[in-house]
Specification:
Strand order of the largest sheet: 24-23-26-27-28-29-30-36-21-22-25
Number of helices: 14
Strand content: 25-35%
CATH superfamily of the largest domain: Glycosidases
Structural class: alpha/beta
CATH topology of the largest domain: TIM Barrel
Radius of gyration: 31 Å
Largest sheet: 11 strands, mixed
Helix content: 25-40%
Length: about 550
């Protein structure tokens, strides 16, 4: 044999060894033990199996952190109190140390306590599949765990022949990761020309040729309703907030409020970060409301205190205590729901607020109680706007109230409308991107602001602006006293007056029947769930007729 031929053979042998080595390297690279999560169209892989999965007492325990923000779950582990929390849209599961478990506030013995390993919480995922609606595939031999949200839609297919190769890559030259028997169904993850990326019944992912499968079909996820648990039999919700600053509410017996069907007195608030609750409940007021068939959803507030809110939201036992206290007060006093009004929240507490609302809603819905939450228009500051995950809140609660006022707030550097109609409609459009119309209440103002503009003493070219809130009746008295004629301001969609008093310019964008009809037109245009007005007592009597006559057109 010539030396040249020997070199050629040697070269081919080296190439063959290199190909085999490369293929096995590819196999080692592609096949990873660990946890695979199918979340919608996203596939998430956690490789460090021994660190995140513990098998003990016939249970498969998973690191709680892995579940957070996957499978439509939010989780929390309060290390100080050794309390772990898992929530989806209708269940809250709480683990207390390594002792007991509660589901929606009720102790259960069908779920084993969590394990605490090196300061981390591990929960028995095999026992949580039913309450959390999760599909569970586990292989102890392969050290693999696959989880999937059963609420999602998915595309599936059947193996068209016996022994269909599921390959690591979309190539017939690729090695096999799994084998399918004829009729075995797989989930389609992605389509690539002549190949399908699939998830097998054993929790493995890979590629099959399209010609090797049949009966491709879309499968609906498990039916879960997130529709409001209550709505008026006829028409839309007409809610008004009742501002209460003393223990005894002002009894609203000064007249009938045509079309009103829900009242929300500002009766409850966080007393401290431990979850104690202040209340100013009036049984006389409840009797008055019940006599008129009004639903009563007391407002529960955080007193606009971001530090208090931060400490409260970070304490699992405090959240549970507050939920239980509020629930007890509502049930004892024959009320119908709750309105959560947490404002001025740190951006860092955005997810914790959603977790708290999920915890509360799960328990309240079990008791047949309505949950609503107040949010501001999108696009503002961190504490007043960016702190709300509106989509996540809207997915859980019955109603979201858009506080569509304070476009120009009390200390605004420029004069302007409290809520011009264009600004309101912009806010509605933004919120409808995340919250369905059937859950959205438009918050409308019964107040306006009287703006005062004066030249600055230091610089006459600059204008100093001040304002004070005023009721509709107060504005009417000014118009009558000064014999002022209001004119329609096309930009705001409101009536407007301007006058000079004591060398100061006064400006008022008026809230009246004209602006209120415009707001009802917006509600009807987008078929929203209804209206919420801030606040009763600031309106004139005719406003109730305007709302009632135009809300359900």
């Amino acid at each position: 044999m010539k030396k040249k031929d020997i070199y050629m053979m040697l070269g081919c042998f080296i190439l063959m060894i290199g190909f085999i080595f490369t293929d096995h390297y590819s196999l080692a690279k592609e096949y990873k033990e660990g946890v695979l999560i199918k979340d919608g169209e996203e596939i998430i892989q956690y490789e460090n199996y021994d660190e995140v999965v513990k098998v003990e007492d016939e249970n498969v325990y998973i690191d709680l952190n892995i579940l957070n923000n996957h499978l439509n779950l939010l989780t929390d582990y309060d290390e100080n109190n050794q309390v772990a929390v898992i929530t989806n849209t209708n269940k809250v599961i709480r683990f207390y140390g390594e002792k007991e478990v509660k589901v929606n506030g009720q102790r259960v013995n069908t779920i084993s306590p969590m394990k605490i390993v090196n300061g981390k919480s591990f929960v028995p995922i095999n026992q949580l599949t039913d309450p959390l609606k999760i599909k569970f595939i586990f292989s102890k031999e392969n050290k693999s765990l696959a989880l999937e949200n059963q609420l999602d839609k998915k595309m599936t297919a059947k193996a068209a022949k016996d022994t269909v190769n599921v390959r690591f890559e979309a190539s017939t030259a690729s090695m096999e990761n799994d084998l399918l028997k004829e009729g075995e169904r797989v989930e389609i993850l992605k389509e690539e020309t002549n190949w399908l990326k699939v998830l097998t019944p054993r929790g493995k992912t890979g590629y099959v040729q399209k010609k090797e499968v049949t009966d491709i079909e879309e499968t609906m996820g498990l039916a879960v309703t997130n529709k409001p648990i209550w709505k008026p039999e006829n028409g839309k919700i007409n809610l008004t907030w009742e501002y209460v600053y003393k223990n005894v509410s002002k009894n609203a017996t000064r007249g009938e409020f045509k079309g009103l069907n829900v009242v929300s007195p500002t009766w409850m608030g966080l007393k401290d970060a431990s979850g104690n609750v202040d209340d100013k409940i009036s049984k006389d007021y409840i009797d008055w409301a019940k006599d008129r068939d009004y639903k009563v959803w007391p407002l529960f507030k955080n007193n606009f205190d971001p530090d208090l809110t931060n400490a409260f939201l970070g304490d699992a036992l405090a959240r549970e205590k507050a939920i239980n206290e509020v629930l007890k007060l509502i049930k004892e006093n024959r009320m119908d729901g709750i309105n959560i009004d947490f404002e001025n929240i740190y951006l860092k507490d955005k997810e914790e607020f959603v977790l708290f609302v999920r915890e509360l809603t799960a328990v309240f819905h079990e008791n047949g109680l309505v949950v609503s939450v107040d949010v501001t228009k999108k696009g503002g500051s961190e504490n007043w706007s960016q702190c709300y995950d509106r989509a996540a809140l809207g997915q859980v609660v019955d109603y979201v109230s858009l506080m569509a006022y304070d476009e120009h707030w009390g200390t605004s550097p420029v004069s302007g409308s409290v809520a011009s109609l264009g600004w309101v409609e912009e806010g509605i459009n933004g919120l409808l991107e995340e919250v369905p119309a059937e859950k959205l209440l438009l918050g409308v103002p019964f107040y306006t602001r009287i703006w005062t503009e004066t030249p600055s003493a230091d610089d006459p070219t600059k204008i100093v602006v001040k304002s004070k809130a005023a009721s509709m009746e107060t504005v009417n008295e000014i118009l009558k006293e000064k014999d002022l004629e209001k004119v329609l301001d096309e930009n705001s969609g409101q009536n407007y007056v301007e006058y000079v008093e004591n060398d100061e310019t006064k400006k008022i964008w008026i809230e009246d029947a004209t602006s209120m009809k415009g707001r009802m037109d917006i509600i009807n245009k987008y078929n929203l769930a209804g209206v919420a007005s801030w606040r009763r007592g600031f309106e004139t009597e005719d406003i109730w007729n305007v709302i009632d006559e135009n809300l359900n057109k």
